[in-house]
Amino acid sequence: xxxxxxxxLVAVLATIGLMxxxxxxxxxxxxxxxxxxxxxxxYIGGGEVDFDGERYLFAGQANLDANLQRKRTDDKNAxxxxxxxxxxxxxxxxxxxxxxxxxxxxxxxxAVFSDDPGEGEYIVVAFHGNRCTRDALKDDPxxxxxxxxxxxxxxxxxxxxxxxxxxxxxxxxxxxxVMPHPTEPYxxxxxxxxxxxxxxPNRSVSPTAIIDVDDPTNPTYxxxxxxxxxxxxxxxxxxxxxxAYCAGFGEVQVWDxxxxxxxxxxxxxxxxxIQFAHNAVVSPSGKYLAVNDEAFxxxxxxxxxxxxxxxxxxxxxxxxxDPVLAGRISPPGHPDDQTFGxxxxxxxxxxxxxxxxxxxxxxxxxxxxxxxxxSWFAGGVTAHDISDLESPELIAHYMPHDGVAWSGxxxxxxxxxxxxxxxxxxxxxxxxxxxxxxxxxxxPKSKRPGPxxxxxxxxxxxxxxxxxxxxxxxxxxxxxxxxxxxxx
Length: 488
Prior knowledge:
The two termini are 38 Å apart. The chain is built from five helices and 33 strands. 5% of the residues lie in helices and 38% in strands. It has one domain: YVTN repeat-like/Quinoprotein amine dehydrogenase (Methylamine Dehydrogenase, Chain H, 7 Propeller). The C terminus is likely disordered.
């Protein structure tokens, strides 16, 4: 285990680029000694991040106020869009100024989404309302209102990084996240589950929308797929595009998507220790699936329940339709002076930001099933070696005490954190970079031997720690009702 130090960091960086590396406020940070911050682009509302595979980061910024609450797009102080950062020069080179919620971004592989890979280059952005598309979507029959505009996606031409431009839009009943198919020019628009994925006025569940992006300038709504009771929050495809894993409230569904327009549910993962299955991400080889628990209803940072709820769970999917539980990564630890509490306590950021220690967005290091990078909201960003699934090893941890990390990823040789309170931070961790097969001269580790072993009985307690009983109604709050647990 690496030694962790607590230090006062003062980053004073020269102003460069469009936004520049402005002076970073002094921050109290807990980190392992091998983590070095190499760039910081401060803003409120850090969301999802994606990478072009070579040089450029595309970092979403959601339309949040200083208390990290979503605002309407017609608010005169609305903010947000997509920041484009060059990881070779560590400069922000472009910005799509489009206030929206939540501006979830994905890069579209030119080999799949362009007839001429040398010419076309695009990203797709999902949102619950966006100022830039308000007029274009107001009459779209597939959308509904959201935050002063309409739900949907936009296709953005990013060939010119300095001047990204919107080239196509299409509405969706709910558009919390979006996932491109890996081999065919379609995107799946996921409703979000809970309050984000439920059409609150009539209490109907929003479907997953399937969009044809063969012509990025004219994305076409093909069909919709209605699935589990709350809808998918997010989706992970296998690299060959044959299967997808739909994470949602109460379960993860296995979909056969060999016919991309007609998914079929062929299996499920039900884990009673997961409060809200938020995402499902397939490992590079396709053997493992990571499922995170965005445990918004119980997220204290210490104690027995904190160690269990909010975890990152690892499943063996070598038989795609029959996942078995193989391992678990607990939420990271915290210093003893951090404020603790639940979603319903008073606190500096509406009662949750300084104590919400649950896994959120994450990815695997390319070409390596053994290393995974993840964000944990107030818990910061981590990298773990899971080559021994019975005892995952912490490689790196970076946790600013004023931070709320929405996304933690490995891209282009760096750990990348997009933080709701701090903006985009780029971190150098040599040990993680060495795990990237394309960047390391070290021979790869041997793969885990042996047959599939279901470790559910070992990893899921027979009696789960208690959860709070307080409920919130989605018509009165950004959070949804937490259903009562069934009697034992």
